[in-house]
Amino acid sequence: MAKQTVAEQFVEVLVRAGVQRLYGVVGDSLNPVVDAVRRHRGIDWVQVRHEETAAFAAGAEAQIGGRLGACAGSCGPGNLHLINGLYDAHRSMAPVLALASHIPSSEIGTAYFQETHPEQLFRECSHYCELVSTAGQLPRVLQTAVQHAVGLGGVAVIALPGDVAAQPAPERASEHALVTRRPLVRPGESDLDALTRLVDAAGKVTLFCGSGTAGSHAEVMAFAERVKAPVGHALRGKEFIQYDNPYDVGMSGLLGYGAAYEAMHECDLLLLLGTDFPYNAFLPDDVRIAQVDVRAEHLGRRSRLDLAVWGDVGETLRCLTPLVKEKTNRRFLDGMLKKHSDALEGVVGAYTRKVEKHVPIHPEYVAAVLDEEAAEDAVFTVDTGMCNVWAARYLTPNGRRRVIGSFTHGSMANALPQAIGAQFLDRRRQVVSMSGDGGFSMLMGDFLTLVQYDLPVKVVLFDNSSLGLVELEMLVSGLPSFGTRYRNPDFAAVAEACGAFGVRVEKPKELRSALRAALKHRGPALVDVVTDPNALSIPPKITGEQVSGFALSMGRMVLEGGVGRMVQMARSNLRNIPRP
């Protein structure tokens, strides 16, 4: 019986860690591992057109599936292409194992063809990054990499020379136990006592929730009811906290809407739950703040804290809710619900006024119709830019849908690659890529991956021939837009030339039927919607400097932003306010 090679050992450990796919592009230094994957029944090789796509896809699979994802790149340029997608996975806390194959071990340090130093290059976007120099290293180093990715939530990188991968593995190499699930973390009694005192002393409490509230919806709602707190959220917290939420006051931040900003600034105590919200300009500096997070390094790095609590949001609230005194005064909560409803009513007209006649099509209208037509358990992947705005304001969460994007790293071109990873995870689940024309065209080659594997991803392309959010940033700064316009092809015709379903929409009355046809189609599909390039968005709080910037650039432009079915949600919550 032939001895197991290092490459075969590498693949075997990945399979035991729960990895089902290895995304990448083949190359000489990677060949031993790719061949080992070919011969192993428990794992598939997914051939993409660009390694950046591989990393994005692995990160998406990790986020949606809740388990380790994996990607690989050949030596030098091959694995360098992984780096942007790995940055995104790392900052999204998605557990991903990346294989950066390397030049022949005897040539390292000689400026050999394609030589880089991956053990140095990937350090900033990983929890763990090590070079395997000998066959005897691999089992323990790989196990350590897996535990870092899963345990800390993020990326681990193994740099493996191709010649080492082809070597025989040591006999009787120890088979290590692998931990593939994270534990729950409960705060200490002293922290719970301190938090209880803060909550009891505050007359007005506001909750602001991030992605760390995943799986804790019931606990957040129970606590909000007990202390009569309005509940706002960051973009990454929307899918986990906004649905079935009678305390909802919207979202704060650059893409925000509603009364979340006011609720955070007018309370006595702001409780930050599982959020690493990066924009401290939207956080108050004159109210008491407590933060709960399972990542200790997140505590206090965005704002001054009166109390930092290390623990899972769900576990913390399960312990805390029975300890705090129930509040009976709803004045603050009801006032914020009224402000929220009024704020949404004021902007709803932007996408409801003559939208079925407006050409080019309002992008808000596209997002609203897509929200109505998409499946109740759909996965949406969202390009960075104005697609973030439309997703934040129009996609309706329900506890079953998922929405992911490059929300922390802010990379272009993420939506299509992430849709690939999400669709491989479950071919029967509807996956929709909300793509901007700039992001889509950047990694458009991987639309061919959808065709090659017959992945039924639906790409809804917001085609405004511009980098819309960049234009907005220029306008805010008082600069004329420059370098932001594209000359685009008929993307639907491109999709059909690739062998997929394609339809181009230029009139609003054609939109719904086109979306229905694409969503019904069994294979990959693209809907190229020509949208209004002048549709922009403004944050919920605007400074004088921003206003003057707009005035300098486009004084006559009216900036409005609709909010879709969130208006109906706010109205419903307002109707539920108890009357004396």
TrEMBL record:
Domain Thiamine pyrophosphate enzyme central residues, every copy: 193-320
The organism's place on the tree of life at top rank: Bacteria
All residue ranges annotated as the Thiamine pyrophosphate enzyme TPP-binding domain in the record: 383-529
Keywords for the protein's UniProt record, in alphabetical order: Pyruvate, Thiamine pyrophosphate
Domain Thiamine pyrophosphate enzyme N-terminal TPP-binding: 5-116
Entry's Gene Ontology molecular function annotations: catalytic activity; magnesium ion binding; thiamine pyrophosphate binding
Family to which this protein belongs: Belongs to the TPP enzyme family.
NCBIfam families, alphabetized: PRK06546.1 (NF005114), PRK09124.1 (NF006591)
Record PANTHER family: PYRUVATE DEHYDROGENASE [UBIQUINONE]
Protein name in the entry: Pyruvate dehydrogenase
Record organism: Peterkaempfera bronchialis
